[in-house]
């Protein structure tokens, strides 16, 4: 698979930080026990990630976290915050300017909410609260419900006591502290006037100590306090009124489109659907929600890019394009078994119509480059491509749907080492071709651990993992790392970085509970042993609690795993990203 993305930003901690301690995992299970029977209409909200956030906000007290969760569930049943859509709150431009989520992250990869209470509101308190809730829902989505993964910047220029009525402020605080606890890491109050001090004294009585500790005051005439902003944000992205160099202001049209896309993603998290769109199921691929490339785009502050087949205008491809194809391989004939074998009708029809080998994907990319050059000129096209990131993930289908497939003779013709060498040589040639087309920044993913995927478990006698299958892909991954070092050395201006998918997956499988998973030996949607004999089909109901499953279907991980992979790619250390992570690559 390959993705072209216009660049954005960063973060860092290592893989271990994703894993909760055994004590935390035990507390999460205790809260589940105290909650009793969970409401079936909100399995996504009552995920391990949400429970962890509530525990974090309540100082890891299972009693207090359970109490707050029960209150939040009751409120959500009545208010239905997940049902609020952009169209419900976007009637007036002023209301959007009062509060919006930025298209950049802070230097720690946290989502940023900007509020401007001095912008005059023409709607009722009820409508203003609805907008607040809509933004909070989007913050939880951006953070995947992780604790303290959002930053709130409040611009007090022009503020008066009439700007924020006391009742409105109290109601807002009540919602944030009781129904979205632990979400905000830092609240930055920029340039509050002198009169705000009396207002702050009154409101302090209603602010929990934990929340009060997160408040920072910043004044534009105080260089010491301004350093908070320069330490936390990229000056090129930060608005000029907060000390940054961004003078563009909020583009309402672009923002509206971004929020509509977020609405679509939110709906897909809850409502699983089959559709042959790009010949994939789920929203956008072999997953119950986001793939790790899409989550990576979100972390970079980018919109989801359209499939190449649907990106007809130059304006669309300037944001990026998705050239990926199900069952595609480095070798042109990989994935052909879906056409040759009567496995299942839906997949066979899909692959027959739409399997696009990597060579053809590169040709499509070259067409995109020509399209951009024709519209903007060769020099402008080259400059834009040099700032873009190409995500490439290939190789798994060359093993699963070629080397290991019974209707191929590849395994008889090549030993494991010979096949790994063949793939690496071809892959190097293909990546060089992308470089010659103008790409300069690459994230290349190794093949993940396949020895424990449901389709392999279903074929083993005792339902056990296959070290042999993992042993086949390791030489290829080793070859790719050496090959990327060579490309970095020999191609001027090239920046290739390697994502160790195999290592991340092994860490999850070695200690699933630490990552919030409890089911590792079957797909959430599939038929037969381990949910892996026949992969997910339109009529199959998926499992209820997808966040507890490592595998979505016979072959692919769930969105919860994809989020972990994306965050490691974005901010991981040298144990999983070599030589630099995606956040660092985006800043070059």
Q: What is the compact description of this entry?
A:
The protein is an alpha/beta fold and 588 residues long.
The structure class reads alpha/beta
Strand coverage percent: 5-15%
- Order of strands in the sheet with the most strands? 7-1-8-9-10-15
Mean pLDDT: 82
- Helix percent reads 40-55%
Count of runs of 4 or more consecutive helical residues: 25
State the main characteristics.
588 residues, alpha/beta, Phosphatidylinositol Transfer Protein Sec14p, 6-stranded mixed beta sheet, 5-stranded mixed beta sheet, 15 strands, disordered N terminus
Topology, element by element:
Elements: E1 2-6, H1 22-35, H2 48-57, H3 62-79, H4 86-89, H5 93-98, E2 99-105, E3 111-115, H6 125-142, E4 150-155, H7 166-179, E5 184-190, H8 196-204, H9 209-212, E6 215-218, H10 223-232, H11 252-270, H12 292-299, H13 314-318, E7 320-322, H14 337-340, H15 345-354, H16 358-376, H17 378-387, E8 388-393, H18 396-403, H19 410-413, H20 416-436, E9 441-445, H21 454-459, H22 467-490, E10 495-499, H23 501-510, E11 519-523, E12 526-527, E13 534-535, E14 549-551, H24 559-571, E15 577-578, H25 582-587
Parallel strand pairs: 3-4, 4-5, 5-6, 8-9, 9-10, 11-14
Antiparallel strand pairs: 1-7, 1-8, 2-3, 10-15, 12-13
Helix pairs in contact: 1-2, 1-3, 2-3, 6-7, 12-24, 16-17, 20-22, 23-24
Question: Any overview of this molecule?
Answer:
InterPro entries: CRAL-TRIO_dom, CRAL-TRIO_dom_sf, CRAL/TRIO_N_dom_sf, GDSL, GDSL_esterase/lipase, SGNH_hydro_sf, SGNH_plant_lipase-like. It is found in: Secreted. This protein folds into two domains: 319 residues, no CATH class; 172 residues, Phosphatidylinositol Transfer Protein Sec14p. 47% of the residues lie in helices and 11% in strands. β12 and β13 form a beta hairpin. The N terminus is likely disordered.
């Amino acid at each position: 698979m390959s993705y072209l993305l216009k660049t954005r930003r960063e973060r860092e901690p290592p893989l271990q930080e994703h894993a909760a301690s055994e004590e935390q995992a035990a507390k999460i299970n205790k809260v589940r026990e105290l909650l009793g029977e969970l409401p079936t209409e909100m399995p996504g909200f009552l995920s391990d990630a949400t429970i962890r956030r509530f525990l974090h906000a309540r100082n890891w007290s299972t009693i207090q976290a359970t109490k707050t969760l029960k209150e939040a569930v009751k409120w959500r049943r009545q208010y239905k915050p997940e049902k609020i859509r952009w169209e419900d709150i976007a009637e007036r431009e002023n209301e959007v300017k009062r509060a919006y989520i930025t298209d950049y992250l802070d230097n720690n990869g946290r989502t940023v909410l900007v509020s401007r209470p001095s912008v005059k509101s023409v709607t009722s308190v009820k409508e203003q609260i609805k907008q607040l809730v809509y933004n909070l829902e989007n913050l939880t989505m951006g953070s995947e419900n992780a604790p303290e993964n959002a930053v709130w910047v409040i611009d007090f220029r022009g503020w008066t006591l009439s700007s924020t009525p006391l009742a409105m402020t109290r109601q807002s605080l009540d919602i944030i502290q009781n129904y979205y606890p632990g979400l905000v890491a830092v609240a930055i109050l920029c340039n509050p006037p002198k009169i705000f001090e009396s207002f702050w004294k009154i409101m302090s009585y209603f602010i929990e100590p934990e929340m009060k500790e997160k408040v920072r005051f910043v004044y534009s005439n105080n260089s010491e306090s301004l350093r908070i902003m320069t330490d936390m944000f990229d000056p090129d992205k930060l608005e000029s009124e907060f000390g940054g160099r961004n003078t563009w202001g909020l583009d309402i049209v672009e923002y509206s489109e971004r929020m509509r896309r977020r609405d679509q993603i939110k709906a897909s998290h809850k409502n699983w659907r089959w559709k042959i769109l790009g010949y994939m199921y789920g929203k956008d691929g072999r997953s119950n929600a986001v793939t790790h490339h899409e989550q990576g785009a979100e972390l970079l502050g980018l919109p989801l890019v359209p499939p190449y087949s649907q990106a007809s205008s130059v304006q669309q491809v300037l944001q990026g394009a998705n050239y990926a194809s199900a069952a595609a391989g480095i070798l042109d004939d990989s994935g052909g078994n879906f056409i040759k074998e009567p496995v299942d009708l839906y997949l066979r029809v899909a692959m027959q119509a739409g399997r696009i080998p990597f060579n053809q994907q590169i040709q499509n990319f070259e067409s995109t480059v020509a399209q951009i050059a024709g519209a903007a000129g060769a020099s402008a096209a080259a400059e834009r491509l040099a700032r873009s990131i190409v995500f490439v993930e290939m190789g798994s289908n060359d093993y699963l749907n070629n080397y290991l497939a019974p209707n191929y003779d590849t395994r008889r013709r090549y030993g494991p080492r010979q096949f790994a060498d063949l793939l690496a040589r071809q892959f190097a040639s293909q990546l060089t071709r992308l470089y010659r087309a103008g790409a300069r920044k690459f994230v290349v993913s190794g093949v993940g651990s396949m020895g424990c995927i449901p389709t392999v478990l279903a074929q083993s006698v005792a339902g056990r993992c296959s070290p042999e299958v993992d042993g086949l892909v390791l030489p290829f991954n080793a070859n790719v790392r050496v090959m990327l070092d060579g490309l970095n050395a020999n191609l001027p201006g090239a920046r290739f970085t390697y994502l160790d998918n195999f290592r991340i997956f092994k860490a999850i499988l070695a200690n699933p509970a630490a990552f919030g998973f409890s089911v590792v030996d079957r797909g959430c949607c599939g038929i037969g042993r381990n949910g892996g004999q026949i992969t997910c089909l339109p009529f199959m109901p998926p499992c209820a609690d997808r966040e507890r499953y490592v595998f979505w279907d016979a072959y692919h991980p769930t969105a919860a795993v994809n989020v972990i992979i994306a965050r490691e790619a974005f901010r991981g250390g040298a144990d999983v990203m070599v030589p630099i992570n995606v956040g660092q690559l985006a800043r070059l």
